Amino acid sequence: MAGVLKGKTVVVFGASNGIGAALAELALAEGATVVAISRSGTGPEGSKSIAADVADHQALASALEAAGVIDHLIYTVGARLGSPALVDLSDEILRLAFETKLFSAVQAVRLSLPYLSPDASITLTSGQVSRKYGVGSLVKGAVNAAVDAAGRHLAKELAPRRVNVVSPGVVDTSLWGEAGSEGRAATIARVSGVLPVKRVGAPAELAQAYVFAMTNGFVTGALIDVDGGGLL
Fold it and tell me: Which terminus of the chain faces fewer neighbouring Cβ atoms within 10 Å, N or C?
């Protein structure tokens, strides 16, 4: 796959850590010019890092304008919500979930339209909880399902530009706690025990799925599950 993104400009929202950072690093290794957008304004070495809070749409517009012509746009931002039961769901949690993962993603796509190349791709991020049901997963399931649907509608509306959605399972990131913490280790061990592959995912494995979505010109409107068999 060496050099498959050579000469392309890849914009990654959420590139300061986790899956977004791994994707930015892989895109750089594949020859892309990477614009790393995050609230902290940090990104992998070699990327063009821009600070922008996705809730600030003026900041988003400025960041996208600074990126120039965009060949691939990837949105990986989400909010840490925990797993509240219905009785504990607050207006704040509901707003945060949808504002961060859905509304700001749609705004980022809308604001990018003047800069997208004619054959550009857009890749959003949902999660297996959109189709894996349980107690405490109402708000996360609902917002991820909304992202799944948004990706397919956008694939029709923005054609011939391509729009896809990557749906991760459990991935070993700071979402589950600080590295080396007992809580994170316990969660990883518990989930690993029930997955067919007997382990959780690594950010680098998810990054490969985004590169596939970017570089395969016959893939659009797809929901790409990378979950170690978590939906089986």
Answer: C
Q: How far is CA 135 from CA 82, 86, 88, 175, in A?
A: 12, 9, 12, 19
Q: Which of 178, 173, 228 is nearest to 200 (CA)?
A: 228
Q: pLDDT of 157-188, one tens digit each?
A: 999 999 999 999 999 887 766 777 787 888 88
Pick the CATH number of 9-226 from 1.20.810.10, 3.50.50.60, 3.40.50.720, 3.30.930.10: 3.40.50.720
Pair 135, 85: CB distance under 8 Å: yes
Q: Look at the pTM and tell me if it is higher than 0.70.
A: yes
Taking only the tens place, the pLDDT of each residue in 37-61 is: 999 999 999 999 999 999 999 999 9
The answer for 108, left when phi > 0, alpha when psi is -120 to 50, beta otherwise, is alpha
Strands (E) located in the chain: 9-13, 33-38, 48-51, 70-75, 116-125, 162-168, 223-226
